[in-house]
Structure formats: C-alpha cells, structure tokens
Amino acid sequence: MPSIILPALAALALPAPQADDANLRVAAQRDAALDDDYAYAITEAITTELGPRLAGTAEEARARKWAVATLTKMGFSNVHDEPFPLRTWVRGTEKAMVVGANSQPLALTALGNSGATPEAGLEGEIVFFPTLDDLKEAPDGSLAGKIAFVSHAMTRTQDGSQYGYYGAVRRQGPAIAAAKGAAAILIRSVGTDSHRMPHAGSTVFPEGTAPIPAAALAIPDAEQLERLIGRGPVRVALTLTPRILGTQTSGNVIAEVPGRDPAAGIVVVACHLDSWDLGTGAIDDAAGCGIVAAAAKRIMDAGRPRRTIRILWAGSEEVGVFGGRAYFEAHKGDNHVLAAESDFGADRIWRLDTNFAPANKPLADRLAAALAPLGISAGREAARGGADVAALISAGVAGVDLQQDGTRYFDLHHTPDDTLDKVDPAQLRQNVAAWTAMLAIVADAPEPISATK
C-alpha cells in the first residue's frame, strides 16, 4: 500500500469504545445466555452421577474430585480442592410410632447433630408446645423423661423471609428442650409443603449440653400428632441411631477466570457443593453451582475480563457453613472487591440488591438497566450475600444479591423431594442470563467497587 495513504487511514481510525458499546455487549451476552445449556448439564451431572453429598462423607469427597475434573475440562484456571477437617455426623435408623389405642407410624428424619436413642429406642409421653416461645417458657426440669413436640408452623413467602424466624425451632429447639430435661424432641418440619416428606437440617447443641435425640416430622404427620394430642395424652416410641464418624475431610473447590488487571481485584461467585442426604440436592444447591459456573464460563469465552472471577464451590455449608468460614480464613487477605452467591433454588430471579457505596450508584444503575429486560427490579435492601460469602461481606466487601423466587423453595428444601425434576430449565436459563449480565458489568467495570460503610 502506498505510504501516502497511511496518514489518511490513521485519521479515519475508529474512536475508543463508548459506554453504549459496552451496554450492547452486555445485552448480547445476557440474551445469548437465555439459550444456555451449561447450567442444566452441570446440575444434571451432579444430581445423577454423584447423588446425595453429605458433608465429610466419601460421597462429598467424590463430588469434590468430580468438580475439579469438570471445572478443569470447562477451561477454568487454577482449579483445585482446598481441604479442611470436619467433625462428621451421619444418620442411622429413623422411626417413630404412636403407641396405644391410636397406634400408627410417623414419618420423620433426624436433625443434623441429633443425639441417639438406645438401639432399642425409647418411649415417652408427648408434651406439646405450639411455638418455640412456649417451649422456652416451660419450667426447668418439667420435661424430664418426656418427649417435647413443637409445632411452630412456617408460612410461604416469595423472599423466604419466614425461614429466619421459624427456622429457630430447628436450630435452637433441641438445645432448649435438652436444658429442660427432655428425653427427646420432635419438631414440625421447617417447610411449606403438604407431603409426607420430612425436612432435614442441622441443630446446635452448645458446648456442655449433651445432645438429645431430635427429629423433624413431615408436616402432615406433625398435624396428625396435633390432632391426636387434642384427643388426649399421646405416647410415642422413637428410634434414632445417628453417629459421629469423628474428624473427616471436607473441602472447597476453587476455579478462576484470570483477569487482565490484577490490581482491579477479585469477584467471587459462590454456591455449595454438599447437600443433605435425603434427596439429590438439585435445588440446594447443584443448580446454584451450575448457574455460577455457566455464567463465569460465558464471560471467559467472550474474552479476558478486567477483574479475576473466582468460582467457589463450597463444602460443608449445610452442616454449619464450614466451607465459607474456611474460605474466609484462607483468603481474607486477597483483594476481593465483590461477592455473590446462588443458593436459593433454580426459580427465576426477580430482584436485585446491592450494598454499594454511594460512589457506585452509576454501577448499580447499569446493573439495574441490564437486568430489567429479564423481569428483575432493583430492590431497596442491602445485599447480605449467601451463607458462604457472608463473612466477606461482613468484612466490608461489596455484594450483589440476585434474589430468586422462593415461593416453592421450602416445599422442597432439605427433603427427599429435592431432585432434578424440580428444576425448570427455562427459569434456570433466566438465572444464567442474569448472572452473566451481572458478571459482564462488574468484572469489567472501570471504576473501583466498594461497599457502603
């Protein structure tokens, strides 16, 4: 080409990309993710090939090995397992029977960390408490040799906000009953369904409190027990034989999309790989792992982002958020600038919450604009993060909460019914599209990202 033409071509050079160009790129990535296949494939594989993944067991260890291989095959960098020790509880025999004139079985499951009955079981009179507060008010020693039963019925909400209040019956009830001398405790499952599917979940016995047998009744069985109590005294024969395996190994699986500017910091996207052992952990939380990995993969395939995206598939969330705590202790010195987690099922995202500093309002506005076409509105709550990133956000890291519709979540949560068929592929893709848009914006945002003080 004649040299005389080069200056003319230079004068016609395209201008630097503008904000509108970035918005168009984000929109294109978001819309393409509505056809995503990665998230469902990951969810299907976790639930089918691995099944239940109780923390600290051989099944969870197999899941971590699978996760490392899968995330490596997807093309992520720095894929590895970060192990940590865990005191591991496993369930055993679980059965209960109303004895006497109205003899009948009850569907139930032991709560995590429950104590055990003798091998032959125990029998006791039921003492009924409609609420956890009623149990708290029982006189000390009044439950000696008896079985406490607490109803404390949860109600259905879109945002799952009732779980914090009604979940206290599971978290605190057994220790309170033990302190009052109870031989065992039964609770109404913390859920909103009407099936004979008990809801598992952990309870906590403070140091110095000997664990008593503790179990959740399926909701129809809890209601049946209430009706029987209305007819007169009730006795129940209960057998629970969980055991402690001692210290085993759990771990967090980490993978990254390396950023082109190390000084710009790290964006963490999290889920948890472990599950309770009654179902296959599809909505809690295989789908979450599929969502965050699929979105990160889409950003990676579109080119190198400014910030590093770190995927955290946490271990041992269900039994006490041990993976999230282990990650925080191991990485609290890393330059995290934003954290987000998908751990509330697979139904559509309906609200965006952030905890950004006032200087990041333009960033929050860009997120809201990109998510609006997906039917997502900007909320007014401060982002708190999921359990596995809550420590980061409490320490001052900015957060984004992409709030999923929880209307049916507690129908399935921690039950044998948490299986792949409950995942709606179309709603799952909407999640991936939202996460892809969010990551495309925050990972490439030119401004610093910080949390409100």
Automatic annotation (TrEMBL):
UniProt GO cellular component terms: extracellular region; lysosome
Keyword line: Carboxypeptidase, Endoplasmic reticulum, Glycoprotein, Golgi apparatus, Hydrolase, Lysosome, Metal-binding, Metalloprotease, Protease, Secreted, Signal, Zinc, Zymogen
Molecular function via GO: carboxypeptidase activity; metal ion binding; metallodipeptidase activity
Cellular localization per UniProt: Endoplasmic reticulum; Golgi apparatus; Lysosome; Secreted
Source organism, top-level taxon: Bacteria
Sequence ranges assigned to domain Peptidase M28 in this UniProt record: 252-435
Transmembrane segments: none
Gene Ontology BP term (one): proteolysis
PANTHER family (alphabetical): CARBOXYPEPTIDASE Q, PROTEASE FAMILY M28 PLASMA GLUTAMATE CARBOXYPEPTIDASE-RELATED
Subunit composition and interactions: Homodimer. The monomeric form is inactive while the homodimer is active.
Entry protein name: Carboxypeptidase Q
